[in-house]
Write a structure and sequence with these properties.
- The protein is of the alpha+beta class.
- The chain has helices at 48-51, 58-69, 75-81, 132-151, 188-204, 208-219, 260-279, 321-324, 335-343; strands at 6-15, 21-30, 37-41, 95-97, 100-104, 113-118, 158-165, 177-183, 223-227, 230-233, 245-249, 284-290, 301-308, 310-311, 316-317, 329-331.
- The chain has one domain: 2-Layer Sandwich (HIT family, subunit A).
- The protein has a ten-stranded antiparallel sheet, sandwiched between helices. The chain has a four-stranded mixed sheet with strand order 1-2-3-16, with no helix packed on it.
- A hairpin with a 5-residue loop joins β1 and β2.
- α4 packs across α7 (260-279).
- The longest helix has 20 residues, at 132-151.
- The two termini are 30 Å apart.
- 40% of the residues are buried.
């Protein structure tokens, strides 16, 4: 049975102030797993190219401002500002792996286990500047934290690694750092993915993610490439206003059980996508890595990345009621176009 990549076409019409008729086709796409819908502009509106145009001066201005304000994550401040784990959780207080550091998040408690992961000592690293070694060390430190969290009753099987890079993506500190979340309950999207994947497996007797990879490779429209055991796709129904990319960790291996090679496969793919983001003129992004769940092979590990932007002159966000209240993605760039451009980075 093939997957149903469902599309419906619509048009929007209006008259310009000069009386000229404008017609713009849209596609309403339906996700074959969850049934979530999203709109893709078949022909971008005349405002889309202006609205999401990169601002080359914005990144340097934000970095300079962050230096003036002072950074709690730089080496000379971290020892004074970082919170510590209780001795029964981690005797050394801070988890260290290479230059990566993990310590409790003292401000935002999204789940029972919330921690901050510092990737290194450099205050500013441009998207192209991250190396596999830096990202692997960070993922290994996250592994240690998640294993410790899961040992504590009632356990923490639902684990995500999250990255708000720069203020347009919700980051409050420029110094490269990620958020680690774990607990006995999944967050909403995690739950929806689990429920839909389990339902698909019950109904069809096969793993959805395995079937998706096979279908996308056969179609060749949104398949980008592999980095070892990780398959990278441009989602049929994007979640970002510009575009986004999804990596699927084959085999249902949890983050805690992943080998060094698995983590390197992830890191290499992430780095290729960050290079593409910078080459597109963007400098901000969100990343979430959903771990597979031990004992449940229906959901495989997922890494989702999307660029984020604000628009001059007043700094308009690319996130609106569509995202926050209606949960309806509206994307200005075709996923198939992004996949075609990104393939060059995976050759």
């Amino acid at each position: 049975m093939s997957l149903d990549f469902k599309k419906e076409e619509f048009t929007v019409e209006y008259l310009t102030p000069q009386g000229e008729k404008q017609v713009f086709p849209l596609e309403l796409r339906t996700d074959p797993l969850t049934g979530d819908t999203g709109t893709v502009f078949r022909t971008p509106s005349p405002f889309a190219s202006l609205r999401y145009r990169p601002d080359p001066e914005a990144a340097s201005a934000l970095v300079q401002r962050s230096v003036e304000l002072g950074c709690p994550f730089c080496s000379d401040s971290l020892e004074k500002t970082a919170t510590r784990f209780p001795a029964e959780f981690w005797p050394e207080g801070i988890i260290a792996r290479g230059q990566a550091r993990v310590f409790p998040n003292r401000d935002l408690f999204h789940t029972p286990y919330s921690a901050v992961l510092i990737l290194g000592t450099e205050h500013y690293v441009e998207p192209r500047g991250f190396t596999p070694e830096v990202l692997v060390a960070g993922l290994e430190a996250a592994q240690i934290y998640f294993r410790q969290a899961d040992r504590n009753p009632p356990g923490a099987p639902y684990q995500t690694v999250n990255w708000n890079y720069f203020p347009p993506a919700g980051g409050s500190i420029i110094h490269p750092h990620l958020q680690l979340l774990a607990g006995a309950f999944p967050t909403n999207r995690y739950r929806r993915l689990l429920e839909a994947s389990r339902a698909y497996e019950r109904e069809h007797g096969t793993n959805y993610w395995s079937r998706l990879i096979a279908a996308e490779k056969a179609l060749g429209e949104r398949y980008i490439g592999h980095t070892g055991t990780v398959c990278w796709l441009s989602p049929f129904v994007p979640r970002g206003r510009m575009w986004d990319v999804m990596g699927i960790v084959e085999g249902g291996i949890t983050l805690g059980a992943s080998s060094a090679q698995h983590l390197k496969d992830l890191a290499v793919g992430i780095i290729k996508i960050l290079a593409f983001i910078q080459d597109q003129g963007q400098f901000s992004f969100n990343l979430s890595l959903f771990s597979a769940v031990a004992g449940d092979g229906s959901v495989w590990g997922l890494c989702h990345i999307m660029p984020r932007t604000t628009t001059p002159p007043i700094g308009m966000s690319d996130c609106s009621y569509l995202d926050t209240l209606l949960a309806h993605a509206s994307t200005a760039i075709f996923p198939e176009q992004i996949a075609q451009e990104l393939r060059e980075y995976f050759r």
